[in-house]
Amino acid sequence: MAKSLVFLDFDGVICNSVLECLYSATIAYYCKYLKVQFTSLPLSFKEGFIRVRPFIRTGEDYVVLADLVARGVEIHTQEDFDRELQSHPQDRLKLFRDLFYQTRRELIAHDFIHWMRLNPLYPGVKEPLQEVAQDPDTYILSTKVSDLIHKILLYYGIDWPEDRILYSHTVSKKEIIGSILTERGGVEARFLDDQLDHLRVAMEDSRISPFLAGWGYVKREWIEQREIPVLSIADFRALVFKRPLPSALPFPRGTDTLAGK
Length: 261
Ligand SMILES: [Mg+2]
Hints:
Elements: E1 4-8, H1 18-33, H2 44-52, H3 62-71, H4 78-86, H5 90-110, H6 112-117, H7 126-132, E2 138-142, H8 146-155, E3 165-167, H9 173-184, E4 188-193, H10 196-202, E5 208-213, H11 220-224, E6 230-231, H12 236-240
Helix pairs in contact: 1-3, 1-5, 2-3, 9-10
């Protein structure tokens, strides 16, 4: 039987990490970058952070997001976010990332249990993940570093081998999936993510079937698009077990045939 692989994003698909990211990014931005002590945040800060969260492509740009919300910059589209991101010099982006990771490490070291509790799993994903944890054809593919994902899953009772948690850092998710398909002799892959751009790029490889996690950090217009099927969390089990997905809308196939050659 033709080998079929499954690739699952982590944040916004398996784990609802937005409050942890808000917490870490806010401390990194105000205390470490601006070096100001703050005792309160405007109530609207959390709302603004969550509203712009879908446009984050990598797990490293949360301080950029905190900066945008703090300065009241209006962000309505992916292009708005990307333009703001690119307006920062590279050394400042690196500093933002370093401060974010430093803050996160300190929070984990200081209060591991409460840090973990800021990273709850979405309801209904735990059992299917436990059942496929030892399946060599199922991968987690994320812009969050692998060892953190491994620790979070373990905390919630899922013993997922770290060698099947792939960190997409400078290489696109499409390229990672494509190379694993080739290496493993797979003919197709299901790819579940909540970032529309990752899915749009990935579907250029005709072996990859993209699915948008409708329960993640998505914009309403992403749900309404007709290009990529949108799943509800009730479909998660069927997706990971490679069963038919009757509720998924049909979509046009990709056009990049190079990957298949
Ligand atoms: Mg995500």
